[in-house]
Amino acid sequence: MKEPLLSVRDLRVHFHTYAGVVHALNGVSFDLYPGEILGLVGETGCGKSVTGLALLGLVPPPGEVVGGEIRYRGQNLLSLSPAQWQALRGGKIAMIFQDPAAALNPVFTVGEQMELVTRRHRRMGRSTARRQVAEVLRSVGMPEPERILETYPHELSGGMQQRVMIAMALSCGAEVLVADEPTTALDVTIQAQILDLLVELKRTRGLSILLITHNLGVVAETCDRVAVLYAGSIVETGPTGAIFQAMKHPYTQGLLAAIPRPSSRGRSLQAIPGTVPDGLQPPPGCLFHSRCPFAWDRCRQERPMLLEIAEGHQVACHLYGGGAGQ
Amino acid sequence: MTEPLVQARQLTKHYVLRGGLFSRRQVVRALHWVDLTIYPGETFGVVGESGCGKTTLGRCLLRLVEPTFGEVLFRGENLLQLDRETLRQRRRYSQMVFQNPYLSLDPRMNVLHLVGEPLVTHTDLRGQALAERVVALLEQVGLSADQLYRYPHEFSGGQLQRIAIARALALQPLFVVLDEPTSALDVSVQAQILNLLKELQAELGLTYLFISHDLSVVQHISDRIAVMYLGRVVEVSTTERIFYNARHPYTQALVSTTPIPDPRARRTRVVLQGGVPSPLNPPPGCPFHPRCARALPLCTTDEPRLVDVGDGHLVACHRVTE
């Protein structure tokens, strides 16, 4: 078994609001191995983006990481000083966002900002940085990199801007790329180009990618493994093939059944009844129990832990083992 | 053959961007020479990428924006030649549901006011009778009477979209334009809304124009589909043929790159190079030729027309007719 590159254990994030403490993450655990794409899926407000931000030490106030561990190459990131964080962030661990236009600085050319960031993370002279940045742009499929370096972000299309963001991460030597909904703002034909690029970077450079998305179709086509997030907890994780063929958690099953697909034509879609529990007052027991068709007494009292039910396939649900109370 | 409910003929909408001090006047060809026919009781899907003109098409069909050229026939009557008062009376027959219910519903109006507004405008219902009618509409879309005096901020996105649907149905329209009605919603809520739309259609015999960028949603709900690219309709056919026997290279690429939630699905993906050209400066000839793998010299000069390749399957491509 390979060693994980990044290992998250029992990560807890709270947001201190006027209304009270919102439990955004309730103990999230997962591993990211070298050279894999791990999909982190879930619906609005489930904590996917907060997880991504936490990996870079960027949880915004009033949010706070209140517990857990994030280990990168054996080192717990949560014990780093701000200066150490800064050296790592955007360097070995980089992030790209849903809206690349907002992530790029509109008043600098692509070349200026890429060089600036690259030189911040790697000691090199201007001309070396320039050459390297052009080289990286070429490797992410940008035609005429020298011309692109002279453009301002607004002159590029959304797909091109996202390529620049990816190039910037690579240029600084990223080993881990946290991609938060990187294709959600893009059209399908452009989405396909960007997803192909991510898969290619995984293969050729051994890049490890945490792909945060709400789209199970994107997961099925690009990810090696999946983690399903619901109300701030991982409810199921495993290899993509196993998850899609034999998903165990009622939430994952419901999520997949709700997606329109060729076989659903002319029939009703299966919707998940109810709504996500209130983060201010999470209910006792399993967070999904109020919407779950299989819930029983134990689900209302005891929070299920992630249990391994097959090679690498874990589920947090009382339906599958735990022994006691069955 | 049944009579068409809505027809567009050579429908064209150009937006003029006023030139600044140093720039020329520019024209965006949002909709260019669009012909289509929608029959009663069907769901007509419109798909395409951002900026392809699908929203402009929906709005022109309701005359919410004034087309630059062309005709819109609603039950045989040209909407574009009606005087103000007749048009106002016709408006009750066609309604619209917008993408973002947070923006389309006025936050200062309660549900009674929101859903009752079209009834006040077009009918004599007032007071108790109005409230009763609104409650009936709310129940039809899965809401209840005790929500009558609530305001939009008290509802979730899915509930708001239900209110928007109730509002659109208040005047018992024949034709409803649904412009990305589920794009702002999560999949589990999207499923509820799609089911609701299907039920309402069966119950009330509605005709839908369903606009979306999401092919799986359009496939689920539509009987026929039009694919748009840069303001043109490039292919129209039944849902089956669009998905399994598309003839236009753009449709083929679009279908093949839509992610399917099944890792075992093996298919040949056609990943297009480059992006959609600017509608300010569309390429000459076929607008798709710069990204088309099968383009001929002819494609760079002559724009193909939409032709019937059999059974009402319309395609605008030079390579199809050869």
Brief overview, please?
The complex is a heterodimer of chains A (326) and B (322). With 326 residues, chain A is of the alpha/beta class.
Structural summary, described in words:
The complex is a heterodimer of chains A (326) and B (322). In chain A, helix 8 (188-205) links the parallel strand 7 (176-180) and strand 8. In chain A, 33% of the residues lie in helices and 24% in strands. By secondary structure, chain A is an alpha/beta fold. The longest helix of chain A has 18 residues, at 188-205. In chain A, the strands form two sheets. Chain A has an eight-stranded mixed beta sheet with strand order 6-7-8-3-9-10-12-11, sandwiched between helices. Chain A has a four-stranded antiparallel beta sheet with strand order 2-1-4-5, with helices on one face. Chain A has helices spanning 48-55, 82-88, 100-103, 110-121, 126-139, 145-149, 158-171, 188-205, 216-222, 240-245, 250-257, 297-301, and strands at residues 6-17, 20-32, 37-41, 63-72, 75-76, 93-96, 176-180, 208-213, 225-230, 233-239, 307-310, 313-315. The two termini of chain A are 32 Å apart. Chain B has helices at 54-61, 84-90, 101-104, 111-122, 127-140, 157-169, 187-204, 215-221, 239-244, 249-257, and strands at residues 6-17, 26-38, 43-47, 69-74, 77-78, 94-97, 175-179, 207-212, 224-229, 232-238, 307-308, 314-315. In chain B, a hairpin with a 5-residue loop joins strand 11 and strand 12. The two termini of chain B are 30 Å apart. Chain B has 322 residues and is α/β, with parallel strands linked by helices. The longest helix of chain B has 18 residues, at 187-204. The relative contact order of chain B is 0.14. Chain B has ten helices and twelve strands. In chain B, the strands form two sheets. Chain B has an eight-stranded mixed beta sheet with strand order 6-7-8-3-9-10-12-11, with helices on both faces.
